[in-house]
Every structure is written in structure tokens, then in C-alpha cells.
Specification:
The chain has 189 residues and is of the alpha/beta class. It is 31% helix and 20% strand. It is built from five helices and eight strands. The strands form two sheets. A six-stranded mixed β-sheet has the order 2-3-1-4-8-5. It has a two-stranded antiparallel ribbon with strand order 6-7. A hairpin with a 2-residue loop joins strand 2 and strand 3. Helix 2 packs parallel to helix 4 and helix 3 packs across helix 5. It is globular, with a radius of gyration of 15 Å. It starts with a strand and ends with a helix.
Length: 189
């Protein structure tokens, strides 16, 4: 079994991004599953293509994309990705979409195919602050979630998105530990 985890590059002038930094210390295997990690650009037009290249190259059995939610205090798995792009700030290429569909004519939304209840229970048992989120926003995080689910849903592959808080809320080591717990849940499925 192969589990692909992705995080994002720094954006909006930030020097780091815990969504990828936490993956740098992931073990290579978790409960027999091979862990693959990669960094995605914070660019609406490049992130989906970069993810697709990773999917084509690695053919993972599960995919978990991570992003930073600067205003959250917990790790928050996302339930839904919407076909909508509306950026309050430009992406790293200077693009700032407004009221645009991500995929013209695509479904309004896709729901995560990750075992969210089991993931939240595992994080709770590990004493890691977590809660379900019903909005991945409308920035590049939602863009990658929507594109990922448009690929994974018809293939019935467990896939989804988890927002992580800044390191001032949860230390990076604990965020890494949370992703190991997520990998354990997926490996057991």
C-alpha cells in the first residue's frame, strides 16, 4: 500500500508552511504502508497539474493533501471541496481569481472519501486537537481538494484534505504525529 501526503510551499510572504514542513519528518513506512511526501506550489494553475503528475507517477492507494489554515487552532479534516475559486490574496504567481468555477461544468462539490470519523477518533485518542471542517475555503487548498476528489471519487480511492494550524497553535512535531495517526488509520482500512 502506498499513501501520498502533500503539503504546500510557503505563501503570502510567510517563510515556512507547516503543511509541508510536518511531512519532512514522516517515517518512510507506517504499519506496512509506504509513505510518499511531496510539496505543491501555491498556484491555482500549477497545483492540480503537479498533483496529477504525482498521482500518475506513484499510483497511490490513498491520498492526503495538507494545507495551512492560519486562523484555526486544531487539525481539521475537510468534508467537502467546492467548484469555486475566490481568492482574498493572490497566489504565488500573482493570480487572484474571483467568483470562478475551478472546472467549468464540473459538479458543484465532491465529498472527501477519507474515513473522517475514524481519523478524528484516532486523533482524539492520541490527544491531538482536531475537529471536522465543512469548508476548505476558496483558495488553493480548496482547489487542490476539488481536483483531487474529481480524480479519486470515480476510482473509489480514499482521498481528501486536512488543514493544519500554525505552529504557534500546535507544535510541528505534534502535527507530524497527527499525520502518522492518519496513515495508521488508512493502512488499517
Amino acid at each position: 500500500m502506498k499513501i501520498l501526503f502533500t503539503g504546500f510551499m510557503p505563501f503570502n510572504g510567510g517563510p515556512t508552511n507547516p503543511s509541508y514542513d510536518c511531512l519532512k519528518n514522516m517515517p518512510q513506512t507506517v504499519d506496512g504502508a509506504t509513505i510518499i511526501t511531496a510539496e505543491l506550489p501555491v498556484v491555482f494553475t500549477q497545483a492540480p497539474q503537479a498533483l496529477q503528475a504525482l498521482l500518475d507517477t506513484h499510483q497511490p492507494d490513498c491520498v492526503v493533501c495538507l494545507g495551512l489554515a492560519a486562523n484555526r487552532k486544531k487539525i481539521t479534516p475537510e468534508k467537502v471541496g467546492i467548484n469555486f475559486a475566490h481568492a482574498g490574496i493572490p497566489d504565488n504567481a500573482g493570480f487572484q481569481p474571483s467568483f470562478q468555477p475551478l472546472i467549468p461544468g464540473g459538479p458543484d462539490a465532491y465529498f472527501s472519501t477519507l474515513p473522517l470519523e475514524a481519523i478524528l477518533k484516532a486523533l482524539e485518542q492520541a490527544k491531538i486537537p482536531a475537529d471536522l471542517s465543512l469548508s476548505a475555503g476558496s483558495y488553493v487548498c480548496n482547489c487542490i481538494l476539488y481536483h483531487l476528489l474529481s480524480w479519486a471519487t470515480p476510482r473509489k480511492i480514499p482521498a481528501g484534505f486536512i488543514h493544519v494550524p500554525p505552529e504557534t497553535e500546535i507544535p510541528l512535531e505534534q502535527i507530524t504525529r497527527a499525520m502518522v495517526e492518519v496513515a495508521k488509520v488508512l493502512a488499517a482500512q
